[in-house]
Amino acid sequence: MFIFKKIQTQLFSEELKNEYKVSEKDFTRNRKQNFPFILLFMLNFLRKSLTMEIDNFISFLKPNIGSKFTKSAFVQARMKVRPEVFKKLSQTLIDEFYTDNDKAIKLWREFRLLAIDGSRITLPITNELKSMYGDAKNQTTTSIVQARCSVIYDVKNNYVLDGILAPLSSGERKLALSHLLHCKSNDLLIYDRGYPSYGFIYEHIKRDLNFLMRVKVSFSQVTIDFESSEKKSQIVTFYPGKNTKLSDKSYDKDTPIEVRLIRVELPKGQTEILITSLLDNKKYPSSVFKELYSQRWGIETFYDRLKNKLKVEHFSGYSNESIQQDFYAALFVSNIQTLIVSELEDDLVKDNQQKKYDYKINTNLSYGFLKNRILDLFLTSKSMEKSFEDLKQLYKENLIPIRPNRSFERNSGKYRTRIKPNVTKNQKDSF
């Protein structure tokens, strides 16, 4: 509850408004749509038509807000809000969770386990968004507008530490490196095989950040030789490739990086090669890395929730500012949901001891329960406490069983073949 109260105080503060309004002249008069109410409205899962969402918002908050405002008035008001305000609120939540909360923070040994990965987000088809983000084509001549999304995600605690929505032409490695500003010395970063390169690994070593990356066997002659040797683990040295451009780098052709290669045998007989900065074979035996790398799957399930539960691609506007606002608001709501769920973990562990099967929170329903209740959560201290307890009770009443030994193959191209956005103009649901 303390974290929610701190966010509430910040949400209604003059400091937040002054920092994240677009112009000094914005929100200076006492209007129907003041700064915190605009933020709360955007946080309230705007997935239907704006007219219906405004009617729902006014009906729900009738004691707290004046007469009804129009769709046009909201569109004008939201243009006065910098999208980064939701990043600020989310950062406040994250900072509070990781501060003086050692008992609640889940670690892998001494490390906070972070995964970085990218995806594509399908945007509305407008000339503005197409020029800013770029378009993609499938096997036909159909063109869709997409942005490149990148997040850094705590796979054991289920928090998004940072997210970026960038042009499709942006490189995943460059976006990943920008996330490192949110990392600490006790973090262990996990990457899929699209990320490793000499320069990328070098940047982690330079920052004294530990990592675990999957690499192709053909990554270099060193990995090819390691795969042929059938060794389980080996400390090796890499140098920049012969054709690497070095004029703009902080290293030269003779700069070594020392890493450890790990062999992982998969159930179907394939061999997987992992590369890590954890060199101590006694402290980190080879046998732990298969299960360790598998925890990267947490970021894959996060993207599934972001797109299919939070429905981030169902944007409430068509300008770049609206797209960015909706994206960062979705990440913030995801962290709010995680915080509520974390408050129930001790109860679930206790209750599961008395049941035949273990049960967990129904993620899909948990987001649905936040509709409107997220407004009560941040309006008054009295509403906050009641809404918080109501949410916890709803979550506990709608648990689902945990099904062990389930696995799903990743379909990395399914969002590239989509022929149109999820929600086209003038076709949003009214019910």
Which labels suit this protein?
431 residues; alpha+beta; Transposase Inhibitor Protein From Tn5, Chain A, domain 1; two-stranded antiparallel ribbon; 17 helices; 11 strands; globular
In short:
This protein is an alpha+beta fold and 431 residues long.
Describe the structure.
The chain is α+β, with helices and mostly antiparallel strands and 431 residues long. The protein has a domain at 107-299: Transposase Inhibitor Protein From Tn5, Chain A, domain 1, CATH 3.90.350.10. Helix content is 40%, strand content 17%. It has 17 helices and eleven strands. It has helices at 2-11, 14-20, 35-43, 50-60, 71-78, 85-98, 127-133, 172-179, 198-206, 221-229, 289-294, 297-309, 320-342, 345-352, 363-370, 373-379, 381-397, and strands spanning 112-123, 135-137, 143-154, 159-167, 187-191, 210-215, 233-238, 257-265, 271-276, 359-361, 399-401. Strands 1, 2, 3, 4, 5, 6, 7, 8 and 9 form a nine-stranded mixed β-sheet that branches. α1 packs antiparallel against α6. The chain starts with a helix and ends in a 30-residue tail after the last strand.
